[in-house]
């Protein structure tokens, strides 16, 4: 396990040291400082034949369980807090992408550094809103819209770390990642764009 959650810029160097052992490797959030580095990390893992995955603990919550029962989601809103945008935005974003998938097409950011709101467009006319309200008591939560209803679900924080650890152990046991790397790369690109000044002026395509 590569554990340096506050310093994603060091992850690639740590991975260079351990990938040659070809052991299934879990890299803590945030996977990389940007999408280009994330691609290099996946390429390096493939070069050595090393299984690799990453995730926020918000990928394994009661929200995803409720979505499975509800059906196709056309719109989703997520909320999260934390001490800083750079370190904690990954959590409500991962909650969104774990439900909506990797086919995000554009992003716009509005609000302030402490009250940031990310508007995300997806293929098929689907949409998402990610609220990152730092230095507040904002709980992790989501609402999702189907053709029948829009329920609001607060994340059961008492179970997320146990669920995340169970998913990691499954990965270590099988050697097969249970997170689609396309979703990881989409998350990295969304974070890239969230820091782009152009996203404050309007939607920017993921590219």
Q: What is the averaged pLDDT score?
A: 96
**Beta strand %:** 15-25%
- What does the main sheet amount to? 7 strands, mixed
For this structure, what is the CATH homologous superfamily of the largest domain? Dihydrodipicolinate Reductase, domain 2
Helix content: 25-40%
Say what the CATH topology of the largest domain is: Dihydrodipicolinate Reductase, domain 2
Distance between the termini: 31 Å
Q: What characteristic shape results from the CA principal axes? A: globular
What series of H and E elements makes up the topology? HEHEHEHHEEEEEHHE
* Structural classification: alpha+beta
| Order of strands, widest sheet | 8-7-3-6-5-4-9
- The number of helical runs is 7
Report low-confidence residues grouped into runs of 5 or more: none
CATH class of the largest domain: Alpha Beta
How many separate domains? 2
| Beta strands, count | 9
CATH architectural designation of the largest domain: 2-Layer Sandwich
CA-based gyration radius? 17 Å
């Amino acid at each position: 396990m590569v554990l340096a959650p506050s310093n994603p810029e060091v992850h690639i160097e740590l991975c260079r040291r351990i990938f040659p052992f070809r052991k299934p490797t879990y890299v803590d959030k945030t996977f990389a400082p940007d999408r280009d580095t994330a691609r290099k990390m996946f390429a390096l893992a493939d070069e050595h034949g090393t299984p690799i995955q990453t995730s926020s603990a918000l990928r394994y919550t009661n929200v995803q369980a409720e979505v499975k029962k509800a059906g196709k989601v056309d719109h989703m809103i997520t909320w999260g807090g934390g001490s800083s945008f750079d370190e904690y935005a990954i959590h409500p974003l991962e909650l969104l992408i774990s439900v909506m998938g990797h086919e995000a097409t554009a992003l716009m950011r509005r609000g302030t550094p402490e009250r940031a709101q990310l508007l995300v467009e997806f293929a098929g006319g689907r949409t998402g809103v990610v609220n990152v309200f730092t230095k507040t008591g904002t709980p992790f939560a989501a609402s999702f819209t189907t053709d029948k209803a829009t329920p609001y679900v607060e994340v059961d924080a008492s179970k997320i770390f146990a669920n995340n650890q169970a998913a990691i152990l499954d990965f270590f046991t099988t050697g097969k990642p249970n997170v689609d790397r396309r979703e990881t790369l989409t998350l990295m690109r969304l974070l890239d764009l969230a820091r782009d000044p152009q996203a404050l002026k309007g939607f920017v395509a993921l590219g």
